[in-house]
Design goal:
This protein is of the alpha/beta class and 188 residues long. Helix 5 links the parallel strand 3 and strand 4. It is globular. The chain starts with a helix and ends in a 6-residue tail after the last helix. The structure holds zinc ion (ZN). The site of zinc ion has 6 residues, from helix 5.
Length: 188
């Protein structure tokens, strides 16, 4: 071992250092500090800001709360993972399931910066999420280049979910969307 160290000191041996790929980051960083009235929605916005700052995907952050405690959070990682299903809600549902050690999230509420797409809405139902709070609407999601409205039309109207889906802090989430629009990003 001593000889090995000596060889390194003499410059005759180069220790092996793992080369990690640099984390993918966008050239422009989010500068906006957006404030929501609801503290959980604020956490969801912060998640989204973290994700768009790193170029992970769209401005969608999500937290899941049980008995007043955050048990899962996540943001959109579609671009990072090349995974079209890695929406903020899906990331957070996976984190919550892992944290609680169960697939049954009965008694949990979910906060998300954008109204859930049909895939995420179904995932919330499969997970037995009690209630969903969202910031921006499906139309707002559409306005920043996502195809939510088109897909939503295929599945019919949402009147059956009036009690289940509640809009809060839309203005704060719209400011987040403006920030995303301003930044360099990959459309998908
Ligand atoms: Zn979704």
């Amino acid at each position: 071992m001593k000889m090995y160290k000596n060889l390194i000191t003499m410059g005759l041996l180069v220790p092996f250092l793992p080369v990690l790929p640099p984390e993918r980051e966008t050239k422009s960083r989010p500068t906006l500090s957006v404030s929501a009235h609801n503290p959980y929605m604020q956490m969801a916005i912060d998640e989204a800001l973290d994700g768009i700052g790193k170029g992970h995907g769209g401005p969608f952050g999500c937290v899941i709360v049980k008995d007043g405690k955050v048990i899962g959070r996540g943001h959109n990682r579609v671009v990072l993972n090349n995974d079209p299903t890695c929406h903020g809600e899906i990331s957070a549902l996976r984190a919550a399931g892992e944290a609680l050690g169960t697939f049954d999230l009965t008694g949990c509420e979910l906060y998300t910066t954008g109204e859930p797409c049909p895939m995420c809405l179904c995932a919330c139902l499969w997970a037995n999420i009690d209630k969903v709070y969202y910031g921006c609407t499906i139309k707002d999601n559409d306005s920043i280049g996502f195809r939510d409205e088109k897909f939503d039309r295929l599945f019919g109207d949402r009147s059956a979910f009036d009690e289940y889906l509640t809009e809060i802090d839309r203005q704060a989430c719209l400011a987040l969307f403006d920030e995303y629009r301003r930044m360099e990003h990959v459309n998908y």
